[in-house]
């Protein structure tokens, strides 16, 4: 099973493409606003609105043999702990070896933003190279 934290995921089409090739079910989990796919392998799961409701839904179900697609580091940590493989939309794998650093970096950045409310800027934009890395990483994860 592939679980996608779908609300702001830029690679939903790519997930569907790879899942179809491998005939693996996908659950796109969101708070709404996403069109259902006609693909019988892809199920749209709409959860209640609220902070982290979609993340909790995925975390309660993901486990060994599953793949979770997310940029949410706390969700990724729960999924890794449960034995799932986790990929960010840029193709970066989050694993037991690097999830601690990812959590620490997330917390540090949160503290820095809180300390300086005028701090501007965000992450870099999503590129074609990110999309390509993701497709390659998901394909490799599916083969394992």
Verbal overview:
The structure is a single chain. This protein has five helices and six strands; from the N terminus they run E-H-E-E-H-E-H-E-E-H-H. Helix 2 (53-61) packs parallel to helix 3 (73-81) and helix 3 (73-81) runs antiparallel to helix 4 (99-115). The chain has one domain: Rossmann fold (3-Layer(aba) Sandwich), CATH 3.40.50. With 144 residues, it is α/β, with parallel strands linked by helices. The mean pLDDT is 89.
Secondary-structure topology with pairs:
Blueprint: E1 2-5, H1 12-22, E2 26-30, E3 42-46, H2 53-61, E4 67-69, H3 73-81, E5 85-87, E6 93-94, H4 99-115, H5 128-143
Parallel strand pairs: 1-2, 1-4, 2-3, 4-5
Antiparallel strand pairs: 5-6
Helix pairs in contact: 1-5, 2-3, 3-4
Task: Name its key features.
single chain, 144 residues, alpha/beta, Rossmann fold, globular
**Biggest sheet features:** 6 strands, mixed
Q: Please state the CA-atom Rg, rounded to the nearest Å.
A: 15 Å
- N/C terminus separation: 13 Å
Q: How do the strands of the widest beta sheet line up side by side? A: 3-2-1-4-5-6
Order of helices and strands: EHEEHEHEEHH
Please give the domain count.
1
Low-confidence stretches: none
Morphology call = globular
Q: What do the pLDDT scores average to? A: 89
Under CATH, the topology is which?
A: Rossmann fold
């Amino acid at each position: 099973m592939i679980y996608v934290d779908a609300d702001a995921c830029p690679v939903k089409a790519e997930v569907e493409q790879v899942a179809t090739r491998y005939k693996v079910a996908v659950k796109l989990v969101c708070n709404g606003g996403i069109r259902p796919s006609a693909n019988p392998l892809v199920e749209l799961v709409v959860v209640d609105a609220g902070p982290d409701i979609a993340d909790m839904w995925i975390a309660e179900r993901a486990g060994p043999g599953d793949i979770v697609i997310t940029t949410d580091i706390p969700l990724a940590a729960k999924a890794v702990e449960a034995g799932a493989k986790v990929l960010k939309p840029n193709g970066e794998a989050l694993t037991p070896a690097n999830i601690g650093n990812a959590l620490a970096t997330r917390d540090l950045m949160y503290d820095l933003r809180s300390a300086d409310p005028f701090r501007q800027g965000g992450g870099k934009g999503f590129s074609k190279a990110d999309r390509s890395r993701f497709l390659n990483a998901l394909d490799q994860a599916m083969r394992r």
